[in-house]
Amino acid sequence: MAKRMLVMLLATALIIGALGFVKFKQIQTAVGQAASFQPPPDAVTTINAVEEKWPETLSAIGSVAAVQGVTISADLPGTVDRIGFEAGQWVREGEVLALLDTRQEQAQLAAAEAQRELAKLNFERMQGLLNENVVSRAEFDRATADQRQGDARVGEIQATIERKTIRAPFSGILGIRRVNLGQYLAAGTALVTLQSLNPIYVNFGVPQQAIAQMRAGRAVHVTVADLTGVDFNGRITAIDSEVDESTRNVQVQATFANADGKLRPGMFVQAEVNVGATSTIVSLPASSISYAPYGNSVFVVTDMKDQSGKPYRGVRQQFVKLGAARGDQISILSGVKAGDEVVTSGVFKLRNGAAVLVNNKVRPANSPAPKPENS
What we know:
Oligomer: single chain
Distance between the termini: 95 Å
Helix content: 10-25%
Number of helices: 3
Number of strands: 19
Radius of gyration: 43 Å
């Protein structure tokens, strides 16, 4: 019995050992295959870096302001008798915008003119009597004062009537009407805004370090996000005399022609000031940059060899120093030289030494002045 049990234990041990050996060989084979496995190359698009001449510019956020802009209001209290404009209308300087009721002043003017006429006749009569030594000099002086007082009273009432005639102080575009016919207006009540739009100002702030680069006459280029494909070119006309203590920026004012009225006061704009001569840089599409806290980089396509010495097309991660941006492009100050083949899409899935397959049938945008299709 004991001999039979021993034989069974030996047989079982042999079977288990054989199975373990087979499994060990299978695992060893799988490990070897995994070690020799090469992932398929990643599909990417590329572009050859080129040198370009870019003007040296300084970018800033600005806002549009009217050369002349006021809120037209009532100078004196009164009831609106006539409105002579429509909202959004272009008006000339001196054009009547509204009339307040002046019936009371007109009656007062008639009475004052009659009183003035009487004072004039009395003055002329006194002058003749004075020449004949019939009246005293004091009575003549009183008649003279009455005549002058009558002229002043007429002028005062005429000025009141004129002040109730509201006119455009300069030529420009009116805003939305804020009063209605028959409405009583207190002194200072706003009627409408008036803005002179051509020419027009763009105000923007620049750091105090850039004050020396700001000079009257320098060219300024302005773009508006809502007006794709429309560019505005003007020149610096004024630089503020002080630096803002809270931002350490100095305000700069540029003047632009605006005959079509596309720039409106209060608009948010992107301004670029040409501050120097053009410089030669290497430009790449912004999509080619891999941004990271430890440094920005690009992937350069180059010929590589794997562990077995087999050549393949792979990528080398190259850290770069970035400069100014222009549209879809960004300037590279160092790290890439002209002629390098740089990956422009798919950079998020790459690593240093990864194999790539270049397919440039569809490339990312690379325009200095992009124009979105649905803009």
